[in-house]
Amino acid sequence: MNAQASKSALDDARPVREAEGPAVTLAPQAPVSTPAKPRRGRKRLLIAALPLALALGGGYVWATGGRYIATEDAYVKQDRISVVPQVSGQIDQVMVAENQAVRGGDVLFTIDPAVYQSAVEEDQAKLESARLEVEKLKAAYAQAQSEAATARDALATAETQDERQQSLLKSGVVPQATADDSALKLQQARGALAQAESRVLSAKAALAGDPEIATDRHPAVLEALAALHAAELDLAHTTIRASKDGVVSQTGRLQQGQYVTPAVAVLALVATDNSWIEANFKETDLTHMTEGQRVDVVLDTYPDQPLKGVVGSIGAGTGSEFALLPAQNASGNWVKVVQRVPLRVQLDPGQAMPVLRAGMSASVEVDTGQTRGLPKFVAGPLGLASGPVAAAPAVPAASK
Fold this sequence. Notes:
400 residues, Elongation Factor Tu (Ef-tu), domain 3, CATH 2.40.50.100, Methane Monooxygenase Hydroxylase, Chain G, domain 1, 3 domains, six-stranded antiparallel beta barrel, four-stranded antiparallel sheet, 6 helices, elongated
């Protein structure tokens, strides 16, 4: 192989003769060298720049984040009213069925009113009797006054006769017995007047101290009126009506002929005129959360119909504080757990509202208007400070 290569090189160095002309000798050509590319330096630069870019991007996202606080531990809430009859009796008629929508004032069911109608009629009779008794008392007062006036006239006559008899006794015209008889009559007249005046006072007291009192203002009549009103109220309570717009539920115990009492609820009414969202946020998310901040709500049932609202109120304590059996943390095996605080979201009025049912799950996002900002050890040397960003104006809770 080497010999052949040397021979080929000598052949290339030999003079080449043309067809016509002198021979020309060609010198061997040197190989051309190309400069090496700096590929290794670029790779190192890319390897160093990629984590740096990721770190800067992550730091930016972290520093500008934290403005929106979200939770999926949120549910639709509505007022739930337990319908309890105010009077006892047998159910006469049932007007509603399970899950039926009703309006405020609609009749739900009725109780047999016969007993309560009889009580109303009895109390009406007692009222008329009380009014008649007051009229009798007024007549008795007038009679007592007349008797007192007669007793005063009799006393005046007796005094005049006694003075005359005493004067005649001194003149010796009449005997002592006649004068004594006149004095006795005077004493009797005074006693009769005292008795008459006592009867006047008694008759006046029977009229509550006011002889001119209106009949229906007399205490006895007022008592009868109160009893009649109570009986009429009981009669009205035999018709049970819906207090609000809503949907009736748990009507299984509502059967015609069943005996009900005021101590037992017979059905439930879920009011639909007022719905709100109860969201449970971690206690660490409440640092910059206040009432009136804007809220976005997405219901699991209607993911394509987002709702708007505001933070209506923040709970006074965590859920564990109001639990039926609060946690006992004064124990040796205590483990710290992040607590959750309930927050009420008031939905904005006027927006297109889908059909809401109590207990529906929702996702809630609150705009706190506050970002995390740079850490202090970074913001300090740079002369930067974190603060709130421009956010939607808060709505006072009282204006909703």
